[in-house]
Specification:
The structure is a homodimer.
Chain A (H helix, E strand, L loop, with lengths): L5 H8 L3 H8 L7 H13 L6 H8 L4 E6 L5 H16 L3 E6 L4 H13 L4 E4 L9 H8 L4 E4 L9 E5 L2 H13 L4 E6 L5 H16 L3 E6 L3 H11 L6 E4 L2 H13 L9 E6 L12 E4 L2 H16 L7 E4 L2 E3 L5
Parallel strand pairs in A: 1-2, 1-3, 3-4, 4-5, 5-11, 6-7, 6-8, 8-9, 9-10
Antiparallel strand pairs in A: 10-12
Helix pairs in contact in A: 1-2, 2-3, 5-12, 8-9, 10-11
Chain A binds a DNA duplex (16 and 16 nucleotides) through helix 2 and helix 4.
Chain lengths: ~325, ~325
DNA sequence: ATGAAAGCGCTAACAA
DNA sequence: TTGTTAGCGCTTTCAT
């Protein structure tokens, strides 16, 4: 490959490499005439600086790592889309990696981030991640790690999460306000801290109001459908879904039974907002915005990079978005 | 930042930099004793090679660029997920960029890929991309470009697409087989070649069968819903949706009117398979698999990189997935 | 206003 | 088996 380099531009123009370099960066020392000459030559030859050389020399990669459990997940994609946008605006690039819920791949991804000398890492951990040492070691060499969504259960690291207790509380209160008598509540992976917290908050409020509640944990959408099929005959008057996946399963079950929403059964879910609008009536949901999370995570990263030693532990506020399902 | 480098390892061990380098790469010339010493020292100090230096020196980035219109799009995400997996297996990294349908951002992204000296580029262009010169220039300096999904309308470049004519043909024939009499067909962005081809194939088949057909182009899901609302009163007995977005809009309209599927109205769509399974009955669809597209695109890239001068112009075969909506 | 030279961290040809 | 050296492409200090 015959790439254009500063050396080549220097040879052709007869100027020294450093002059060419300066001219291209619009350095005040260089005469307008030279600048014009060099920039024209450069654009003629499609010169682009070799970013590896620049980074090696400047010891700065202007690169952030992003590790997510999966790239085929609407929520993480909304986070990534928002991170990408912020990064672009700030002249950073992103190296995006998926761990596919495998701690070994996660470890390899961390390694890659180290090798790339990323300026920082955004990470959502796998359910099986027991050892977060590799992450902490990054922090030791001044590579800040901002955990998001699935975060380790310890206080000495930056964490940006969607509201756990709050969103469950809003849902439970809405159910009470609407005088529902019997709830079917389906939660997600019971390993996650967020699930435990939501379960706890949700059930305790219903308990206060003396509302009957059937609870279950679903591993995925299909499982959620099974659960719905099993319990719908017991005629709950509202079903609470902790995730989009669960909502999808539940909706299939209610549609199959031709249950009218909200008359036969009400539905309320926690979601980033995509699925709920697919149905008629739209499903009432508590919004967990990936976009907001991304923006906030990026802000935390920038603030940490600019010297702040503050430990960020932020929660994306829950917003109730009313549809017609309750 | 006090990063561990070969130099540092060399100073500590008393060995030369090259010996350390070789020991770390398990070079046959180096004695087992030295290797052990060096690898232990390296792991103690968490040595990771500076990838910028490696790439600069080896003149190889082991990096592919990926440019998609949007990262908040299920189809592209499935393509990316599959590209990422293939890349990881082959020790490549991905630099993923979104153009948000803006040709200027697209141009900036191409520039970034050049600067990163990517080994190749996977790209899906914006509807407004009129000048694909910047892409072709990459090809000139031996950076292969594999276009996918939204590809330029010319024959001298690699293209991997989902089936255009085929998928529309399958849909039209299925409609005829089911003795439908009046079709509402909603297509996507009329600027895209794929839309034109599908429109052409679809309508001409219906014409052969003498089936009445109302056609429309939708810009997005909301627009599709409006169109459905406008035309459902004319009582079509089947609606064909060209994309997931359109399906979503149409389904909201049919649910609002409490139309029973497939009795009151049949539905058939082209989709990557996520949305159709959300409904009951599941929507019959013609599959356009992002995973398959990603794998095929990656294969084409590897074959091109290994010297093949063959122009890849591949189509992901259409598969009819029967739900209960027709 | 321009040039020479050093060095970022690494690999590899050549020397010992 | 190990060390020396040159150089990848760039930035930047120091000299001219």
């Amino acid at each position: 490959m015959i790439t254009t380099t500063l050396k080549k531009l220097s040879e052709i123009s007869g100027l020294s490499i450093s002059t060419v370099s300066r001219a291209l960066k619009n350095h005040p020392d260089i005469s307008e005439k030279t600048k014009l000459l060099v920039t024209e030559l450069a654009s003629m030859l499609d010169y682009e600086p070799n970013i590896n050389a620049v980074h090696l020399r400047t010891r700065d990669s202007r690169l952030f790592g992003v590790i997510v459990p999966s790239l085929s997940n609407c929520f993480y994609n909304s986070v990534i889309a928002s991170l990408e946008e912020e990064a672009r605006k700030n002249d950073y690039s992103l190296i995006i990696l998926q761990s596919v819920d495998d701690p070994d791949i996660e470890a390899a991804n961390i390694k890659l981030c180290r090798q790339n000398r990323v300026n920082g890492l955004f990470a959502s951990i796998t359910p099986e991640t027991i050892n977060i040492e590799p992450f902490l070691k990054l922090a030791e060499i001044d590579i800040p790690v901002i955990f998001f969504d699935r975060v380790p259960d310890r206080s000495d690291c930056h964490k940006i999460c969607v509201a756990d207790i709050d969103s469950a509380t809003i849902a439970a209160n809405l159910i009470a306000e609407n005088s529902k008598k019997k709830v079917l509540a389906i939660f997600g992976n019971s390993k996650f801290l967020i699930t435990k917290k939501r379960y706890q908050a949700f059930t305790s409020i219903l308990h206060q109001y003396n509302i009957e509640c059937i609870t279950a944990y679903a591993t995925d959408g299909t499982h959620a459908r099974q659960i719905a099929n099993d319990y719908l005959p017991e005629k709950p008057d509202v079903v609470f879904c902790m995730t989009d996946e669960i909502l999808a399963g539940v909706m299939r079950a209610t549609q199959k039974r031709k249950l009218k929403i909200p008359d036969d059964i009400a539905v309320i879910t926690i979601s980033n907002g995509f699925l709920p609008t697919l149905y008629y009536p739209q499903i009432t949901y508590i919004e967990t915005s990936g976009e907001k999370l991304g923006k906030l995570a990026f802000e935390s990263m920038m603030s940490t990079l600019s010297g702040s030693t503050f430990i960020h532990d932020k929660i994306i506020e829950s917003v109730l978005v009313r549809g017609g399902s309750i």
